[in-house]
C-alpha cells in the first residue's frame, strides 16, 4: 500500500479508516502519469462543477430516475451526467427529463458504451457508475475529495464489506479476478470489476483502451501498472433494480481473458 493511500484517511468521512488501511491499492507516484497529474491537485481543489458522472445505460427504466436523483442530491445538482444509451425502453427519455446528456449508441456491450462515456466529458474529473442503483452516489463527495488529495484513480471496493447483495457466483468470480490480477501485477487489489470509480480525465485520455466486457478491469490495471496513484476505497453495494445485462458465465470468461491479456501487455510494456 502506498503512503499516499494512508494520507487520504483524514478526508474519508463516511467510511471507516481501518477499511481504508486495508484497501489502499498502490501505484508508485513516480510513474509518468503520477508525476504529470500532481500539478492539477496543487493548482486548486476540484468542486462538483468539475465533475462528470458517466454511465452506460441499457434498458434501465426501473433504475435511472433513482440513480440520477441520487447524483443530483449528492452534488447539489452541479455534476454533469452523461448516459451512453442503447435502450429500447424509456431510459433515454427519463434521463433527458432529469437533465442528463444522452448519447445514443447501438448496444455493443458494457465497455463500448463506457469507453464512449468516459471520453465524452470536458470536465477534469470523471466518475463512472452503473445505472442500476447498486452504487452509493452519496459517496461522490468522498471520491472527489480523494482526487483532490492527489489520487489519479479512486476505485470503489465492493468486496471489503462483503457485497452480500451480489449474487454468490459473481462474488466468487470477483474474488478470483482480484487474486489473478494481483498475482499478475505483483500488487494487491481487491475489486477489479467495480463499476464505480473516479478518474482524472487526463488518465482516461492518455491510455488506449481495448477491452469490452473486461473494460472495468482494464481501467484499474493499466493505470496501476503505469505508476498512477490508484487507490481502492470501500463502498457499500446494494441490490440491483432491474435485470443484469451481463451474462455471468460468458461475461466472466471474457473478464478473466481481459485481465490476463492486459496484465501481460502492461508487463511487456515495462521492457
Ligand atoms: N449503452 C449500453 N449500456 C450497457 C450495455 N451493457 C451494459 N450496459 C450498462 O452498463 C452497466 C453495467 O451493466 P450491469 O447489467 O449492471 O452489469 P453487472 O453490474 O455486472 O450486473 C449498466 O448501467 C447497463 O445498463 C450495452 O451494451 N450498451
Ligand atoms: Mg451493475
TrEMBL record:
Which GO molecular function entries does the Swiss-Prot or TrEMBL record give? transferase activity
Q: Region Disordered: start and end of each range?
A: 1-42
Q: List the keywords (alphabetical).
A: Transferase
* Residue span(s) of domain Glycosyltransferase 2-like: 52-208
| Compositional bias (Polar residues) | 1-10
Q: Which Gene3D superfamilies match?
A: Spore Coat Polysaccharide Biosynthesis Protein SpsA, Chain A
Check the record and name the CDD domains matching this protein: DPM_DPG-synthase_like (cd04179)
Pfam family for this entry, one? Glycos_transf_2
PANTHER family from the UniProt entry: RFBJ PROTEIN, UNDECAPRENYL-PHOSPHATE 4-DEOXY-4-FORMAMIDO-L-ARABINOSE TRANSFERASE-RELATED
| Name this protein carries in UniProt | Glycosyl transferase family 2
In which organism is this protein found? Halorubrum californiense DSM 19288
Instruction: Tell me the lineage of the source organism.
Output: Archaea, Methanobacteriati, Methanobacteriota, Stenosarchaea group, Halobacteria
Amino acid at each position: 500500500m502506498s503512503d499516499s493511500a494512508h494520507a487520504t484517511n483524514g478526508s474519508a468521512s463516511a467510511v471507516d479508516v481501518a477499511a481504508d488501511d486495508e484497501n489502499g491499492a498502490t501505484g508508485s507516484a513516480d510513474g509518468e502519469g503520477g508525476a504529470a497529474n500532481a500539478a492539477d491537485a496543487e493548482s486548486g481543489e476540484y468542486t462538483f462543477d468539475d465533475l462528470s458522472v458517466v454511465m452506460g445505460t441499457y434498458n434501465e427504466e426501473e433504475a435511472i430516475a433513482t440513480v440520477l436523483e441520487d447524483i443530483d442530491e449528492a452534488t447539489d445538482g452541479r455534476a454533469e451526467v452523461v448516459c451512453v444509451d442503447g435502450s429500447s425502453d424509456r431510459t433515454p427519455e427519463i434521463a433527458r427529463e432529469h437533465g442528463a446528456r444522452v448519447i445514443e449508441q447501438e448496444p455493443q456491450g458494457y465497455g463500448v458504451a463506457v469507453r464512449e462515456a468516459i471520453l465524452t466529458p470536458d470536465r477534469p474529473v470523471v466518475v463512472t457508475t452503473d445505472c442500476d442503483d447498486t452504487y452509493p452516489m452519496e459517496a461522490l463527495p468522498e471520491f472527489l475529495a480523494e482526487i483532490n488529495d492527489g489520487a489519479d484513480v479512486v476505485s470503489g471496493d465492493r468486496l471489503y464489506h462483503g457485497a452480500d447483495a451480489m449474487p454468490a457466483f459473481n462474488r466468487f468470480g470477483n474474488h478470483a479476478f482480484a487474486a489473478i490480477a494481483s498475482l499478475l501485477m505483483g500488487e494487491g487489489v481487491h475489486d477489479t470489476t467495480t463499476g464505480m470509480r473516479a478518474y482524472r480525465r487526463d488518465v482516461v485520455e492518455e491510455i488506449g483502451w481495448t477491452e469490452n466486457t473486461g473494460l472495468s478491469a482494464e481501467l484499474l490495471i493499466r493505470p496501476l501498472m503505469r505508476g498512477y496513484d490508484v487507490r481502492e476505497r470501500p463502498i457499500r453495494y446494494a441490490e440491483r433494480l432491474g435485470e443484469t445485462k451481463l451474462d455471468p458465465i460468458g461475461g466472466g470468461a471474457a473478464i478473466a481473458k481481459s485481465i490476463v491479456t492486459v496484465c501481460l501487455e502492461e508487463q511487456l510494456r515495462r521492457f
